[in-house]
Design goal:
two-stranded parallel sheet; 2 domains
């Protein structure tokens, strides 16, 4: 939402500009108009992050302007800022969702769900750590729904998922889910 001034630019104009700068489909001659038509068609939904990083008055103006947007949207915000904004400027038909931490038992059940009944030893070791050491770095990392999902996608059933139990390599939740790793590389998800 960076750089948008709703007093000077409609949500559609702002979003069309962002699309034309960020996606090759909308670059070049006619790209801005194609982006605008797509947004106005209502056949696209935008995922907008950063609302909570905007000051209160500007945030309220943005939400009021978005009320008139022809496209569907998902606004991502910290809970506190979302509650404050909803008091002053609401979106008709909006639904608030809060992503909660995943309990270790739920993470373990999810990770084992698609595995054979006799899960591979590496997966059993990982889920045992989740259940018996909920303060471990890997358990804290897997409190994130995204992290649990990515882990299951990155490691195959026979993959070396137990490498995440190496506390010297993965001493913190951030090290476990390092953003500096290439997505999809074992040990880096």
């Amino acid at each position: 939402m960076d750089g948008w001034d709703p007093a000077r630019e409609s949500p559609t104009e702002w979003a069309a500009g962002r699309l034309s700068r960020g996606y090759t489909l909308f670059r070049g001659r006619g790209g801005l108009e194609r982006a605008r038509r797509l947004l106005e068609s209502g056949r696209v939904a935008l995922l907008l992050d950063g609302l909570d990083e905007v000051g209160g008055k500007l945030r309220n103006a943005m939400v009021s302007a978005l009320e008139q947007a022809p496209f569907r949207l998902v606004l991502i915000s910290r809970a506190k800022e979302a509650v404050l904004t909803a008091k002053w400027a609401g979106l008709a038909g909006a639904v608030a969702l809060e992503i909660l931490p995943v309990a270790p038992s739920d993470a373990a059940a999810y990770l084992l769900d698609d595995l054979p009944e006799q899960a591979p030893l590496a997966w059993r070791a990982l889920t045992e750590r989740l259940l018996h050491d909920p303060d471990s770095a890997v358990a804290r990392a897997l409190a994130s729904p995204l992290a649990v999902t990515l882990l299951r996608e990155v490691y195959t059933d026979a993959g070396p998922v137990d490498e995440l139990l190496d506390d010297s390599r993965f001493a913190t939740p951030g090290a476990t889910t390092s953003p500096h790793c290439r997505w999809g590389s074992p040990g880096c998800w």
